[in-house]
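Standup notes, protein team

Yesterday: finished cleaning the Bugula neritina set.
Today: BAG2 structure.
Blockers: none.

Input for BAG2:
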Amino acid sequence: MNFRAVNQINNIEKIVKSVVENNISYSWTSSQNGSNASKSMKSSLHFSDSGVLSDNNEAIVGKLDELETQIENLRVAAFKLEEQKVQLTKLLTNISETINQSALASGHREEIEANTDRIMLRLLSVNIKVDIPRTADQEQAYSNVKILLTELENKVSSNIDGGKKMITMYLNACSAEQTGPIDSNFQQMILACTADDQRQVRKILHSWNQTFNDIEKRWAEAYHDQILKL
């Protein structure tokens, strides 16, 4: 949460406390991007005999909704940065493996390896973490889903066709629009997870499925080229 959001929440708490204690009207001014342009919101809050807020609290509720939207956008952006870091790490790892298997001259190899290591260290210095609040049941469900994904990853390595079918069944199990058979065990576990966990798992499965589709497309194109050369 950024500094501006924290200040706004603190202002809301002060306003509510003041109104509850003194039953008075309030004036709240907020500025955006540090500019002189600002907007003021004024409202009278009325309380019943029991001291409970009765109406005209739209300003506070509206501001809280606005802050919640900003925070959710921040979480989404952080998730995307996490994914980007993973992709960059894989790319640098692949480059390192390619260098080790190449026939580069010793001097060139050492220079490229040094640059690759330097870039990797800079990437690893970027720490992005988004905590997902979970109940005990959600934590257990997420742990079970991770086990199934690990087993699926191992299955793909040993049985490509079987692994691809399983990926499709898992995707159908956690998608609103199913296009084929599902894995009911996986569906039961993924539905017990948080909405954030479900979105992340779907992204992983979509990524794996797209990788298979790209490989099959390249194989088909290569086969077609070979046929044309006959």
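Follow-up from PR in the comments: The radius of gyration is 27 Å.
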